[in-house]
Every structure is written in structure tokens, then in C-alpha cells.
């Protein structure tokens, strides 16, 4: 990551969103941290921890994406339930079709 941490990248995203809302006050931008199911459950837990640490008005939730042939959604369900119920985050899923 070239010496930058994930926290640094999220801070940069927030700064850009904040400036965009100043420049374009009629447009509201919000951010979801993406969990790539190919990275595994531990990475998903790390993403939730990062979201909790970075929570502000711009960060509204988590989303699960990636190749649906990897991992089982049931393995991620506790993470998303925790995000919603304990931390007030929104959640979303991206689904894909495969030729199998």
C-alpha cells in the first residue's frame, strides 16, 4: 500500500467527501466499507473493526462483495448482524451470477 494504512485511505476518502459536499451541497455522498468474500472471514472482522474505529457521518455501513463461489454467506452473517445491531451500520450484499 505504499506506506499508507487502511486508516489513512479512509481518512483521505472522508476528506474528499467533505470537500465534495462543500462544492456540491445538493449532493450527499456516503461510504460503505467493502468486504471481499475472497479475503476470508478474518479480513471481514478486520473491516468491521476498521469501520467501528472510523465511524462518522460519511461512513454508513458495510457491504459484502466478491466471487460468490468463495466462502459461505453464513460465515459472514455474524459480522453483518454485529455491524447492524451493535454499531448501527447499514448493510448490503452484491450478488453475482456464475456459470456452474
Describe the model.
- The chain is of the alpha/beta class and 100 residues long.
- The protein has one domain (6-93).
- It is 47% helix and 17% strand.
- The chain contains three helices and three strands; from the N terminus they run αβαβαβ.
- The chain has helices spanning 6-23, 41-54, 73-87, and strands at residues 31-36, 59-65, 90-93.
- The protein has a three-stranded parallel sheet with strand order 1-2-3, with helices on one face.
- Helix 3 links the parallel strand 2 and strand 3 (90-93).
- Helix 2 packs parallel to helix 3 (73-87).
- It is globular, with a radius of gyration of 15 Å.
- The termini are far apart.
Keywords, separated by commas or semicolons:
globular; alpha/beta; 3 strands; 3 helices; three-stranded parallel beta sheet; 100 residues
Estimate the helix proportion, in percent. 40-55%
Average pLDDT for all residues: 91
The count of DSSP E runs of length 2 or more, i.e. the number of strands, is 3
Reading side by side through the largest sheet, how are the strands ordered?
1-2-3
Shape: globular
The structural class is alpha/beta
> Approximately what portion of the residues adopt beta-strand conformation?
15-25%
Please count the helical segments: 3
Sheet having the most strands: 3 strands, parallel
Radius of gyration using CA atoms only: 15 Å
Indicate how many domains the architecture comprises. Answer: 1
Helix/strand order, N-terminal first: HEHEHE
Termini distance? 35 Å
Q: List segments where confidence is low: pLDDT < 50 over at least 5 consecutive residues.
A: none
